[in-house]
User: Which sequence fits this backbone?
């Protein structure tokens, strides 16, 4: 019995040893890894069933492993692809916001101009008939130039509007003085008196301020949406560096190689990897936030007294008001022009340079509620601006918060309750290093990603410059200045606040402002001049003035 007693310790030792060997063999199986690897779409050929020596590994810790060199390479490429997809998916909302809102605003502004031109054309045809058709190119050119400016053309709005009123004065002056022959030189002389005589009342000054402010703001805002769209698209297409790819592989798939395919990265570990990989994108954030603030300021201009909808939609009525002023004051205007440019030659008896239409019995027909285009592109400006402001506010700090948004995805990282059981880059356990700050220079001591802080991403720097230029343009637009030319309008002569005046706040009447005729002989000469004697057709023109007043009230 003594020999049995002597063997008992040996047997027990062997039993414990065998049990530990069996347990170790069970722990080293790669069945879970093979299953997870296959689920990624990879072939299982040449994939080990049990852990092998990891001396061949170049990224993961070279312990016993379930990964071959080929597996590590494939998983490394997979981590790169998934990272690119994560950035694209996380930025999808931002990119689609700028794409969709640009499309809506652009459609709205274009249709608004189209509706306004059609409204003017229809109204003037009904009112003036053939007389308007013979001079319609003056109005067509106005809208052509407005469209060209909006689409980015090199158009000086102030000069263009001055030219429009000068041309209109030439045409109307001939119509109210049909008994005279006017040469091209004489017509050019007439246009020089536009500012001095103010034949159209205060309409041109008010409209110049309104159109300039409205179109500068609208064009800058749409261009801002374009720039935001392009920046978001380009920056979202990340090209990870070699150091980033190594860190991604280590975070996402080294758990596979260590036989822990179901263990997800710790949250803070994920943040340091993403902050290192997206360091250049985070540097965009400062300029991006300034750009968003400038866009919100420009949006205020679209809501204010110079919003393009309130300016463009009634432009036909404003022009008709100007024509009324010219008609009402044509005698004084003619006298001043004849005084300054000389007495024109009378046409031969029985001839007239232009015939004024007698078909003034067609009254302006106001739009019915169903007909009137109270919206363009199926919406209105207030709705568009309210919507885009909400979306723009959500876009602030997007690039600096991008790592946090990616690492908040439960499919990427372990939850907070699992901080002790998450992958920390080496094993399953708590992640101890501190979280890095944002931006390239703050990644010098990033424990996870090897970042060269001396070589900023050229593409990102280009986008920063694009944002800076656009921000400056938006600020200019907010102040009423186009970057292509400085607004020379004396704003103090407007509403007193530097913003001009609008229909609701300006006096409805348009007083004729002109230089008084000199005392003495000129008054008697003017009184007896045939230049101010109404032509046989003048009464017909005067009738239309009343109709225009009614039309203005109906609109």
Assistant:
């Amino acid at each position: 019995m003594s020999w049995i007693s002597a063997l008992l310790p040996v047997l027990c030792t062997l039993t414990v040893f065998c049990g530990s060997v069996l347990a170790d063999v069970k722990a080293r199986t790669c069945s879970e890894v093979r299953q997870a690897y296959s689920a990624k779409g990879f072939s299982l050929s040449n994939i080990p069933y049990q852990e092998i020596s990891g001396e061949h590994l170049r990224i993961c810790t070279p312990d016993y492993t379930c990964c071959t060199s080929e597996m590590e390479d494939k998983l490394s490429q997979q981590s790169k692809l998934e990272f690119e997809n994560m950035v694209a998916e996380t930025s999808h909302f931002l990119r689609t916001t700028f794409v969709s809102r640009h499309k809506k605003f652009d459609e709205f502004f274009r249709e608004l101009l189209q509706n306004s031109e059609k409204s003017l054309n229809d109204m003037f045809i009904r009112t003036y008939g053939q007389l308007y058709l013979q001079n319609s190119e003056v109005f067509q050119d106005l809208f052509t130039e407005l469209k060209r400016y909006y689409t980015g053309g090199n158009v000086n709005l102030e000069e263009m509007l001055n030219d429009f009123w000068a041309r209109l004065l030439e045409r109307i002056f001939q119509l109210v003085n049909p008994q005279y022959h006017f040469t091209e030189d004489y017509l050019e002389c007439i246009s020089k008196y536009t500012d001095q005589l103010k034949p159209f009342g205060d309409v041109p000054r008010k409209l110049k301020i309104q159109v300039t402010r409205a179109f500068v703001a609208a064009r800058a805002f749409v261009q801002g949406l374009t720039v935001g769209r392009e920046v978001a698209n380009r920056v979202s297409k990340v090209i990870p560096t070699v150091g980033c790819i190594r860190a991604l592989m280590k975070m996402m798939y080294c758990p596979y190689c260590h036989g822990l395919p179901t263990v997800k990265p710790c949250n803070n570990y994920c943040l340091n990897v993403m902050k290192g990989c997206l360091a250049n994108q985070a540097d965009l954030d400062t300029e991006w936030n300034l750009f968003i603030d400038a866009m919100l300021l420009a949006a205020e201009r679209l809501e204010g007294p110079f919003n393009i909808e309130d300016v463009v939609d009634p432009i036909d009525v404003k022009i008709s008001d100007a024509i009324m002023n010219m008609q009402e004051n044509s005698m004084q205007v003619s006298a001043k022009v004849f005084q300054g440019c000389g007495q024109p030659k009378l046409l031969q008896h029985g001839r007239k340079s232009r015939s004024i239409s007698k078909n003034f019995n067609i009254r302006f027909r106001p739009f019915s509620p169903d007909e009137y285009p109270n919206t363009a592109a199926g919406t209105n400006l207030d709705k568009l601006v309210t919507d885009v402001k909400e979306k723009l506010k959500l876009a602030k700090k997007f690039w600096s918060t991008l790592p946090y948004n990616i690492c908040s995805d439960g499919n990427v990282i372990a939850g907070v309750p699992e901080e002790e059981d998450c992958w920390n880059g080496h094993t399953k356990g708590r992640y101890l290093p501190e979280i890095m700050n944002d931006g390239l220079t703050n990644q010098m001591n990033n424990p996870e990603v090897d970042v060269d802080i001396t070589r900023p991403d050229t593409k990102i720097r280009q986008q920063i410059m694009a944002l800076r230029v656009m921000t400056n343009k938006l600020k200019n637009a907010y102040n009423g200045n186009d970057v292509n030319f400085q607004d020379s309008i004396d704003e103090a002569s407007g509403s007193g606040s530097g913003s001009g005046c609008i229909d609701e706040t300006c006096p409805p009447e348009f007083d004729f402002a002109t230089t008084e005729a000199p005392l003495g002989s000129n008054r008697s000469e003017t009184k007896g001049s045939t230049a101010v004697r109404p032509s046989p057709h003048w009464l017909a023109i005067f009738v239309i003035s009343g109709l225009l007043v009614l039309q203005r009230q109906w609109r």
Remarks:
- The longest strand covers residues 180-181.
- Strands lie at 180-181, 345-346.
- Residues 80 and 245 are 6 Å apart (CA to CA).
